[in-house]
Write a structure and sequence with these properties.
This protein has one helix and seven strands, in the order ββββαβββ. It is mainly beta. The chain has one domain: Ubiquitin-like (UB roll) (Roll), CATH 3.10.20.10.
């Protein structure tokens, strides 16, 4: 919980509550930069694996030999069991329709 100012009209009041956070995460696959996206800082491993699966970079979880995520550095390092040709680098935002 954090304390922040809530503004309503001409009034400001100090309140406590949850604040949504986003952070950039850069994903590297087999040492090559794949993409940077903005995301919640939670469940980053699931986000990375799910994204790789949805983009057909992997077809199964056992194709991921190693996955290291550093939320502090905003990096995810993925080593696959096979070589892969990645699409060109993209930057995605969490906004509707990709930003």
């Amino acid at each position: 919980m954090r304390t922040y100012l809530r503004i309503r009209g001409r009034r400001a009041e100090e309140v406590s509550g949850e604040i949504v956070r986003e952070q950039p995460l850069t994903v590297f696959v087999n040492g090559e930069k794949f993409l940077t996206l903005l995301c919640s800082p939670l469940k980053l491993e699931a986000l990375v694996v799910g994204y790789l699966w949805m983009e057909k970079v992997i077809g199964a979880l056992d194709e991921v030999a190693r996955l290291e995520v550093s939320p502090v550095d905003g990096r995810a390092e993925v080593t696959l069991t096979h070589p892969v040709t990645l699409p060109t680098e993209r930057i995605l935002t969490s906004g509707c329709g990709g930003g």
